[in-house]
């Protein structure tokens, strides 16, 4: 007679033990226990932060050496563990001590253009009543770290260090925080104390000045008439018969008296100057990193000129709109813009811009030499009728010139200095 085997205690015990242990641990997790764990973690974290990766490796080897030496009686393991422990104990002496400083980080300007000098200074004062030993201070600048040696300071004495930050490329650099560092000669322990906060340094893109003649491509500075008729505007077009509901203020009484039929004025709708600027951030549209930087500079130059002339402006990229309420904020946002893979096509960006800025009078499509004529044609199809569309292809390998694809004016730009001349040609 066959019978189904019943799991014995040896098989059932691990699963039962695990369930019981899990349930018991769950009962111990009370709010008080959670608060105690959080408090202990907050106290332990600074201690662990002092140990460098090399120090953690040495500590692990020392622990392993003690375990192997005591368990198997290996004298070599005990000696290695003893040496590692002594090194860690000696390293503690180098990071002990307390210095009381008053530190001020001052940047002359927090916004500079590429190529300009960003100058700053650090003032370190002894805020204690005793003499402080020499120390080393670190100043992170982006991914780099600058180090300053602070001499011995008596009570109330101040030491100043000046520094210059290179601005070879467009970026947002995080400067600071200033910190003092104590470290042993072997690099096992490292203790840093922060004295200031961090400051953002905007390295704006290079721009070129566009005077009134260069910006003359905007055809409706004061509002130009279109072929769309309106019942009320500023550009008079013709007279027509009165229709119930028309505004009586637009009745032309002289014509009404002469013809015996009530006549009202018909106007042409005007469109105020409103620039829509689409900057492509798709990496596939550019052949070199410098091509994208040129495109950003073109967008910054046109946008800055439009804001200076108090024109309506909207700037969009594949990641969303940029702030255009002031030139500084526009340049700040353009400083953060980066080319990326997987962005939407230029045609999609053009359609998004047309939906977001339906009343635009001039539409710019700024892209790189990697954009084909077919892609430009597809992007121009989303520009509304009556809106002048200009595409600017930016690339160091391009020759400055002008061409056309249907109603789209295509401008090729090889150098930023040629932008003013190119726009004057487009306005001709």
Automatic annotation (TrEMBL):
Pfam families: DUF58 (PF01882)
DUF58 domain span: 239-320
Superkingdom classification of source: Bacteria
Cross-referenced InterPro entries: DUF58 (IPR002881)
TM helices/strands, residue ranges: 57-74, 80-101
Keywords: Membrane, Transmembrane, Transmembrane helix
UniProt-listed PANTHER family: DUF58 DOMAIN-CONTAINING PROTEIN, SLR1927 PROTEIN-RELATED
Protein's name in the database: Uncharacterized protein (DUF58 family)
Organism: Paeniglutamicibacter cryotolerans
